[in-house]
Each structure stands twice: as C-alpha cells, then as structure tokens.
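Below is a filled-in request sheet from our internal design queue. Each sheet records the structural input a requester submitted and the sequence that came back. We keep these sheets so that new team members can see what a complete request looks like end to end.

REQUESTER: design group, bay 2
PRIORITY: normal
MODE: inverse folding
CHAIN LENGTH: 275
BACKBONE (tokenized):
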C-alpha cells in the first residue's frame, strides 16, 4: 500500500493574539501545494509499478468532518481509498502521527508535504517515521521513480549542498510543493460519489498537552518620576543622581515585625510598590 497524508488547512491562515492558528474557514480551506505534490507522487508510484505489485493509494487525513472535502478531491484525482481520523483542529503533531501510524502499518511508502500552511513546523513526517519504525527522507526536491526497489531522491541540506538518497521502503518521505503538480481530475470523476471511511480518534482526555515553558521570575519595573531640569545636562544629573552623595545603605537591628515594616517602607521609597 502507498499512503499519502493530507492536512486540511486554511489557504489564508489567521492567528489569534498569541500566534495560535484559528480553525480554518471551510470556504477557503484545502491542502497546501506540498500536500498536492505528495498526492501526485503517490499516484505516480502506483502508476509506475502498481500493476505488478497491485499497489493501491490510500489518502488519509486527521481533522473534523469538513476535512472530508480534501479526501474527496484526492479520490477524484485517482486515490483508491480515503480515511479521515476524527479529531479536532489543532491536535498536537505527536498525537496526529500516532493516530496516522495506527492505520499505516502496512504501507510500504508514505508521502507527506514538507510543511503545512498554518504552523509550518514539518514535524508530523518525522514523528510518523518514528511511530512506524521506518526510514525518513524529508524535504525532497527531486525524485526519480525507476522501480519499487530502485528509487532515488535529492534533498536540500545546509550550505547550499544536496544529498542523494535511495528510497527503500518502508519509508516516510516529505516533498516540497515545487516537485510535482497534481493532475487534473476529470469532470466525471468529480461528479461521482466518493466514500470516505471515518475512524474515531482518541478521547479528548487522552490527548497529550504540553505545558508552557516556565520562565525565571522577573520583578516588576521600578516606577521613577520624570527627570526635572531646564537643560539636558540637568535632566541627566537628575536621572543618574551624580550630584548627590553616594550612600552604601544603613545597618539596623530590629525585631522581626519591625524589620518587615522597614523592608516594606524601603521598597516603597525605591519605587517597587505603591505607598
């Protein structure tokens, strides 16, 4: 089986005030150019050596019911089966990869886009390769389909260099959108009724949540009065207090209650709390 993972995203993604992508608008949602290229390569693999090995193309996605639209488009383009794992938008990448791996254990090759339009991390293919215990070939920019046992690819590496890989299954490959253009589906295929298999995802309480990273304590900024003075030099002297004698503090001996009151008074004098 040859599988292709498609992600239902907004073609014009929007983000909230914290930079988190909001749920896609179904009117403008679809798949990225990278996912379209992944689907095209999956179809080319089947066409190149599928007759001898009886390979089929499985299109799979994780998302809400509105994501069925991208699977129907994949079936119209030539995919043989389609599965949607029912999970809410914004599910963590690790959970997505775990759910995908449960359905792709028999896949000899899994095609993915190199990154999505919303988050752009490109982490799902790597997580999926780990879950399937498969080799990974990420960020491919060219593929040479010779045979099922003799397929090579080129990928981009640092420093402007290129790396040539041998794609020997089981393998998870991610491609850039410029590597292939998805074939046009015929009108008859578009009008045909397509069946999408729906699989329930894990319960909401089993989804792993990642806590926000803890930051070191940072005290509130001091409130200081506006510098006074007729000239810039006078205002600088007012800020830096260079014309006042330097004080190295005072040493006092007080009982605990009086010491606490003195600390609070000093913090108020220094501007760290309101009087």
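RETURNED SEQUENCE:
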């Amino acid at each position: 089986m040859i599988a292709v993972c498609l992600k239902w995203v907004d073609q014009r993604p929007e983000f909230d005030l914290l930079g988190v992508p909001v749920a896609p608008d179904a009117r403008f949602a679809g798949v990225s150019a990278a996912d379209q290229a992944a689907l095209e390569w999956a179809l080319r693999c089947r066409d190149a050596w599928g007759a001898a090995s009886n390979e089929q193309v499985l299109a799979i996605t994780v998302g809400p019911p509105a994501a069925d639209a991208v699977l129907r488009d994949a079936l119209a383009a030539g995919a043989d089966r389609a599965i949607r794992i029912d999970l809410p938008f914004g599910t963590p990448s690790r959970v997505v990869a775990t759910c995908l791996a449960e359905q792709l254990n028999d896949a000899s090759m899994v095609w993915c886009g190199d990154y999505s339009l919303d988050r752009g991390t490109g982490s799902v293919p790597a997580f999926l390769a780990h879950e399937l215990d498969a080799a990974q070939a990420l960020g491919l920019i060219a593929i040479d389909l010779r045979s099922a046992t003799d397929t090579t690819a080129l990928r981009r590496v640092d420093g402007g260099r290129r790396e040539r890989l041998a794609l020997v299954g089981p393998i998870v490959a991610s491609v850039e959108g410029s590597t292939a253009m998805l074939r046009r589906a015929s009108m008859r295929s578009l009008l045909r009724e397509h069946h999408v298999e729906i699989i329930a995802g894990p319960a909401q309480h089993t989804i792993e949540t990642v806590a926000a990273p803890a930051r070191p304590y940072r005290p509130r900024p001091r409130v200081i009065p506006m510098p006074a003075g007729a000239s810039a030099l006078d205002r600088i002297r007012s800020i830096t207090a260079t014309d006042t004698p330097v004080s190295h503090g005072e040493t006092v001996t007080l009982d605990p209650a009086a010491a606490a009151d003195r600390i609070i008074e000093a913090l108020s004098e220094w501007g760290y709390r309101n009087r």
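SHEET NOTES:
- The chain has two domains: 2-206, 219-275.
- The CA atoms of residues 20 and 188 lie 40 Å apart.
FILED BY: M.R.
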